């Protein structure tokens, strides 16, 4: 028997294909002309102003909703997350009547939803790891030997994480030339299609999180485009990993989709190639059945599913604390590029064009890597019975290099 | 003709070999029983309470000295740094008479001097890079091909940076076993002798710093021990670099020695093996003539000089912004392990013991790597005519693993 579909008093939230129905309720930070950034929740084509709601006594965020990022609210912990979600669900229900401080999304500027504390990026799609490994190191050393035993990750740069819509400047950098190193504008600018998990609590230095504890610490997810300069990367990345090739910018979507909204879409991930050590074992499926893909200048280039991934965010976070490394509210954990096995499922141009050898056509033009002026957009949604949990847009356009 | 040696009214500051004479004036954060952490300056065996000084109208820190970290003061910029240094030099001079809020260092607890925003670690000693390269990859691939062309670095974890004296827990982790991966307490726990540069200003995303601009952005330096789990590192570090092997803890010294104090000791670094690209060229010597070394359980194990390094902190910082990556006040930039060419000049046990093959003797006991209960201390000082610019202690003792 199917439960009656929950509908919202905000009519646009009930339209088929709307990213932000009442089942979603993602958190973000917005401002309107002449007013300061504050916390809000997306509903249909509108934003519910949480700071105003709290001022009216409609919801209790312990005073954090007037802050210009969600870190304060997130730090309040899961019981508060649950209580606020329940309150918002009542306030926005079809039969609710209380006057609400709604703002049209068209009139709002969206900001980075959190102060990103630290940013870690993983490498958890076997298809991507193998495809990129072949291109960088050849087929014999494509998949690193530890890849099926641990989530491989590296620390990225938090200061260059920006919100959707922020232009990204093509980087200058050092690359390998025929007669020694060359100083040049990047010639192989790429995207990486990822999901980013937002850490919602602190852990203690010297202690480890189990996978279950790690999952309980995740507040929610955003789309994440880890812009990558492949020519700079190839020259710099051995032996200490990618550095400036990944520091030009990382774009995230403005709305944090909560674990609670994604819960009905829980899914198993890729098939295990070998048993995992106990500290990485998951008792229940750790992924989501989530369509995810990307566009270039409006044309859909690839789509796949988050459940092609091999390690979940909870496993990545547990591994991150293996050594006793403490996690903090506002840490951002990139899933790694999400690529399915087929070309039209790849989450990076490096894979899709075989490092530039097989161009793609975009609106009639040929591309191997990203040109100045090109706009990349990411999208993701989980489709339920009669509603969709969407992430909204995550876009960035490339500005010419400052030579 | 030699200038008359500046002396302090704090007698202990004038003792030969004192780390904190009036020429030094390093900044830190301290508390005493029942009082909150606040900013201070080390002078001899005492701390000048800067919050109290400001309350008495003796010095102007724009209200930042009452904060529990120096980020606020540092963000005020170089003209303010210079003005406060000049004021402190007058207040602490031998002939000054104003009553001063001095606290005995013996009665104080020293705290992390800054909120570490992000932590980046480099790899700038050719001796270390070559020695470690031989051990990890063999002599043919020891020095990466780009090493003489760019400062190789990686993003470390800021949340695990702790102040001198904080115990460090031996990490658990995944290592390569004979029949697949093994979950174990680290068996090859090591130190890394480094200097850490504190970034003193913000840079703009999408713009680059010249080496000169980068140097102007550095507030000062601390000692830095980048504890390293070599067995975990060997299994995890390809292709994305060290991760959990470096996240167990990074110890820094509590006193930030300013650029101004080190200026008289400016020195050239290691000889260049090839010309650098213009963006990395330095117009003047970028290093310091600074004795630096480490102890184990009180026994001096190695000493060398910071000027063996190949890339300066200013060059590292300039390279860090190459891609447009923005820097922030409180970013910490590790120099990389400082090793001279000889065994008694090596800044890590990995090099000193040839990955455990050649044990060393410490107080009559044999060591290859660090045992539980062992204490590692770093030290550094620049010796002028009749005074010493010292860094004070930077120690950490190892606790047994939580299995």
Automatic annotation (TrEMBL), chains A, B:
Recall the GO molecular function terms of this protein's record. fumarylacetoacetase activity
Q: What is this protein called?
A: fumarylacetoacetase
Any idea which UniProt keywords this protein has? Calcium, Hydrolase, Magnesium, Metal-binding, Phenylalanine catabolism, Tyrosine catabolism
Task: Please tell me the species this chain comes from.
Answer: Neorhizobium phenanthreniclasticum
- Its EC number(s): 3.7.1.2
Give the pathway listed in the UniProt entry for this protein: Amino-acid degradation; L-phenylalanine degradation; acetoacetate and fumarate from L-phenylalanine: step 6/6
One Pfam family of this chain: FAA_hydrolase
Return the PANTHER family for the record. FUMARYLACETOACETASE
Q: Which residues form the Fumarylacetoacetase N-terminal domain?
A: 23-113
Cofactor(s) for this UniProt protein: Mg(2+); Ca(2+)
Principal EC category? hydrolase
